[in-house]
Design a protein that fits this description.
The structure holds two protein chains of two kinds.
Chain A: E1 2-13, E2 16-28, E3 33-37, H1 44-51, E4 59-64, E5 67-68, H2 74-81, E6 84-88, H3 99-109, H4 114-127, H5 143-155, E7 161-165, H6 173-190, E8 193-198, H7 201-207, E9 210-215, E10 218-224, H8 225-230, H9 235-245, H10 248-260, E11 265-272, H11 280-287, E12 291-302, E13 305-315, H12 318-330, E14 334-339
Parallel strand pairs in A: 3-8, 3-9, 6-7, 7-8
Antiparallel strand pairs in A: 1-2, 1-4, 4-5, 9-10, 11-13, 11-14, 12-13
Chain B: H1 2-5, H2 11-45, H3 55-70, H4 73-79, H5 81-88, H6 94-118, H7 122-130, H8 135-168, H9 177-186, H10 191-219
Classes of the chains: A alpha/beta, B mainly alpha.
Chain lengths: 341, 222
């Protein structure tokens, strides 16, 4: 439903050329939540702005619902934008307008009648959970509430696509989760396609169906979120995944162990999907006469299932440890040896 | 007691002059507001990266603003005598001062408008564009409302400067408190007339500042 084909975007800056988006080809399905992750400067902000024509590509094709966006201009582009709405990192609300006036703004742009505007605004305020705050000004709201206004405003003209530009990056973790839940709810209830960009793997893990990883203007990896978690290919993807699986404590715990008790084998196990729910570890301990010391463990849930990591120290007869690792393999648990004695 | 302190003040003349000063200040403030916003918007929208980004128009408007902002007001009045004669068929009376007042103040205020517009968060304009707003909607529903407190405090300052300019316009016989203070007070050595005219100008300035501050406070929801 959204098809980007060989999209390039170049900027001229002080005489030198900057390639913000470099030959990107992506297909986004109707009704899915598609995440684009990258560090700042990776070109993701430019990419998302190509989708609603805030930026025009240097070359390439952008089809949305069978409509070529790159050829649109004037009223054609303005009408298309009413169906591809956007929310922002810094909310971008009009401070001079109340909550309900902010939400009514896109309806005014679309030329909706006043009585109809009123009805729609009320419905949207209920949808995003802002009942009672209609007459407040943005300055009187918290960050999470402001983003709720942003979301209500974006939904006003019944869009087909919602673009989220780092929509949770300015919010605290708890508020981030509440906003992500709201986006998931909207996605399921309204069947809206959501494209979001972020630098937080947590956001991708929690709500996205599929993810594209961007680095230096290129999409370096793309796939279902769980698959990407399971077997990341690019180094940058591995770094992003370690954002949610490794805590800062993990490295410290391993380093500590190396110094204090450097015996046995240190292995990192990765469990995917159903494996996370089965007692593989209990079986391991029962079957093999070795000591198992749990160093660190973590489970991340994605939309399509869970992904867990476990760091174990195995102490005992070397041959038995090898057998134990082979047993884990046969149970479809991926292992990685971090340290041998 | 007032009769004792201001023995030479002809109150009828004084009120007429006050009325003339108010008339000139009010009209010139109104037109300065309109033309200044137009100039400021043009400067803003034609600047690089904006909706009407256009180097030639931007440089041309900027030059126009700078030239008329730099001409000393007293010289501007004299330069504009022919124009005023065409417009009003006369060089006397409060109306004759208006072209010079407006042409002198509008570019000055235009610069203030530009600064006010530049203070608006770029993201808000981008948000309006992303909703499919046309440029006129962005101007009237985003740019002007979002910068309104700065526009009002700017016109307050400009309006007070205009009260001062109206006094100078006395040299071309525009009337008002400035003319009265100069002709009746200074030239006839009646200091009490000059003092009274000054007091009235001060009161006008204080009232303008008070109204301006009140409006800004009401408008600013940040």
């Amino acid at each position: 439903m959204i098809q980007l084909t060989n999209v390039h975007k170049k900027f001229q800056l002080n005489g030198s050329e900057i390639v913000a988006v470099d030959d990107v080809t992506v297909a986004i399905k109707e009704g899915e939540i598609f995440g684009i992750i990258g560090y700042s400067g990776a070109g993701k902000s430019t990419l998302i702005r190509l989708l609603n024509g805030l930026e025009q590509p240097t070359s390439g094709s952008i089809m949305i619902h069978g409509q070529e966006m790159t050829t649109l201009s004037g009223s054609g582009l303005r009408n298309a934008r009413q169906k591809i709405s956007m929310i922002f990192q810094h909310f971008n609300l009009l401070w001079s307008r109340t909550v309900e006036e902010n939400i009514a703004f896109p309806l005014e742009i679309a030329g909706v009648k006043k009585s109809e505007r009123k009805r729609k605004v009320k419905e949207l305020i209920d949808l995003v959970g802002l009942t009672g705050r209609e007459k407040s000004y943005p300055a009187q709201l918290s960050g999470g509430q402001k983003q709720r206004v942003g979301i209500a405003r974006a939904l006003a003209n019944d869009p087909e696509v919602l673009l989220c530009d780092e929509a949770t990056s300015a919010l605290d973790p708890e508020t981030t989760n509440a906003i992500l839940d709201l986006l998931t709810d909207i996605n399921e209830r309204l069947g809206l396609t959501i494209v979001l960009i972020t630098h937080e793997m947590h956001v991708i893990r929690k709500i996205c169906h599929r993810v594209a990883v961007m680095e230096a203007g290129k999409v370096v990896e793309m796939g279902n979120v769980l698959d990407v978690f399971q077997s990341p290919q690019a180094d940058i993807t591995k770094r992003f995944i370690s954002q949610v699986t490794d805590t800062a404590d993990t490295d410290a715990a391993i380093a500590h162990l190396r110094d204090e008790a450097p015996q046995g084998k240190l292995v990192k196990l990765a469990f995917i999907g159903e494996r996370t729910e089965q007692p593989v570890l209990a079986e391991l301990i029962r079957k093999f006469p070795i000591d198992v010391n749990i160093v660190q463990g973590n489970i991340s849930t994605t939309r399509d299932g869970a992904y867990g990591t476990l760091v174990l120290q195995l102490v005992g007869d070397v041959a038995v440890i090898e057998e134990a690792v082979a047993f884990l393999h046969s149970n479809e648990v991926k292992t990685e040896v971090l340290m041998n004695d | 007691m007032i009769e004792q302190w201001f023995p030479n003040v002809n109150w009828e003349k004084m009120w007429t002059a006050t009325g003339e000063t108010l008339y000139m200040s009010a009209y010139s403030t109104f037109f300065t507001f309109v033309f200044g916003i137009a100039l400021g918007l043009l400067l803003f929208l034609t600047s690089p990266g904006q909706l009407w980004a256009n180097k030639i128009t931007h440089v041309f408007t900027g030059a126009f603003v700078n030239i008329f902002r730099s001409i000393p007001f007293i010289i501007l009045i004299i330069l504009l005598i022919p124009l005023t004669n065409i417009m009003f068929g006369s060089m006397r009376g409060p109306n004759a001062a208006l072209p010079a007042l407006i042409i002198g103040a509008a570019p000055f205020y235009g610069r203030m408008v530009l600064i006010a517009l530049q203070e608006i968060d770029k993201g808000v304009i981008e948000a309006a564009r992303s909703m499919g707003a046309r440029t006129s909607t962005i101007i009237f529903k985003v740019l002007l409302p979002e910068s309104m407190p700065a526009l009002v405090s700017g016109i307050t300052v400009t309006s007070i400067a205009l009260v001062g300019y109206t006094a100078m316009a006395g040299v071309i016989g525009a009337g008002g408190l400035g003319t009265l203070a100069y002709l009746e007070g200074f030239q006839r050595s009646r200091e009490d007339v000059t003092l009274m005219a000054t007091i009235l100008v001060l009161i006008i300035v204080f009232i303008i500042q008070f109204i301006g501050d009140l409006l800004v406070k009401r408008l600013d929801k940040r």
